[in-house]
Write a structure and sequence with these properties.
It is built from no helices and eight strands. By secondary structure, the chain is mostly beta strands. The strands form three sheets. The chain has a three-stranded mixed sheet with strand order 3-7-6, with no helix packed on it. It has a three-stranded antiparallel sheet with strand order 4-5-8, with no helix packed on it. Strand 1 and strand 2 form a beta hairpin. The radius of gyration is 16 Å and the shape is elongated.
């Protein structure tokens, strides 16, 4: 993903502990294979970092994307993983 010709920096956090990683990653993954199951990231949390110039303009200097997974349920539109019943796993078939 690109914004203002800048590539995104992807943050991958532990879904339970929410600890920041040591590093950023290139591109945005679509999911992860964990505990023998395939989890799909179906939500993105996007943060745009801007710098205010001396001329009172705003310049985009960073673009962070944090993918996360939420189960299909009524409160999914809230876009809040803390109230979700868990991540969304892909099932065979």
């Amino acid at each position: 993903m690109y914004l203002d010709n800048l590539p995104s920096a992807t943050i991958l956090r532990d879904q339970n502990k929410k600890e920041l990683p040591v590093d950023y990653f290139k591109s945005v993954p679509i999911g992860v294979y964990e505990y023998g199951r395939k989890m799909i990231y179906n939500h993105l949390d996007i943060t745009v970092i801007v710098h205010d110039t001396l001329e009172h303009h705003h310049r985009v200097v960073g673009f962070e994307v944090e993918p996360f997974s939420m189960m299909e349920e009524d409160n999914r539109s809230e876009n809040n993983p803390s109230i979700s019943k868990g991540p969304m796993y892909l099932l065979e078939g």
